[in-house]
Amino acid sequence: MARVGIYGATGYTGFELIQILERHPEVEIAFATARSAAGRRLSDIFPTMIDTPLMAVDAVDPRDVDLIFTCLPHNTPNLDQIIARALEAGVKVIDFSDTFRLGSVEEYERWRGKPHPAPELQAAAVYGLPELYREAIRNAKFVANTGCYPLSGILPLAPLARAGLIADGNAIVDAKSGVSGAGRSLALKTHFGEAHETFSAYNIGRVHRHLPEFEQQTGLHIIFSPHLLPVFRGILSTIYVNLRPGISPEEVRAVYKVYDNEPFVHLLPAGKLPELRHVQNSNLLLFGIQPVEPESGRYIIVSALDNLRKGASAQAVQSMNLMLDMDETLGLL
Amino acid sequence: MARVGIYGATGYTGFELIQILERHPEVEIAFATARSAAGRRLSDIFPTMIDTPLMAVDAVDPRDVDLIFTCLPHNTPNLDQIIARALEAGVKVIDFSDTFRLGSVEEYERWRGKPHPAPELQAAAVYGLPELYREAIRNAKFVANTGCYPLSGILPLAPLARAGLIADGNAIVDAKSGVSGAGRSLALKTHFGEAHETFSAYNIGRVHRHLPEFEQQTGLHIIFSPHLLPVFRGILSTIYVNLRPGISPEEVRAVYKVYDNEPFVHLLPAGKLPELRHVQNSNLLLFGIQPVEPESGRYIIVSALDNLRKGASAQAVQSMNLMLDMDETLGLL
Amino acid sequence: MARVGIYGATGYTGFELIQILERHPEVEIAFATARSAAGRRLSDIFPTMIDTPLMAVDAVDPRDVDLIFTCLPHNTPNLDQIIARALEAGVKVIDFSDTFRLGSVEEYERWRGKPHPAPELQAAAVYGLPELYREAIRNAKFVANTGCYPLSGILPLAPLARAGLIADGNAIVDAKSGVSGAGRSLALKTHFGEAHETFSAYNIGRVHRHLPEFEQQTGLHIIFSPHLLPVFRGILSTIYVNLRPGISPEEVRAVYKVYDNEPFVHLLPAGKLPELRHVQNSNLLLFGIQPVEPESGRYIIVSALDNLRKGASAQAVQSMNLMLDMDETLGLL
Amino acid sequence: MARVGIYGATGYTGFELIQILERHPEVEIAFATARSAAGRRLSDIFPTMIDTPLMAVDAVDPRDVDLIFTCLPHNTPNLDQIIARALEAGVKVIDFSDTFRLGSVEEYERWRGKPHPAPELQAAAVYGLPELYREAIRNAKFVANTGCYPLSGILPLAPLARAGLIADGNAIVDAKSGVSGAGRSLALKTHFGEAHETFSAYNIGRVHRHLPEFEQQTGLHIIFSPHLLPVFRGILSTIYVNLRPGISPEEVRAVYKVYDNEPFVHLLPAGKLPELRHVQNSNLLLFGIQPVEPESGRYIIVSALDNLRKGASAQAVQSMNLMLDMDETLGLL
Question: Which residues of chain C, if any, have pLDDT below 70?
Answer without folding.
Answer: none
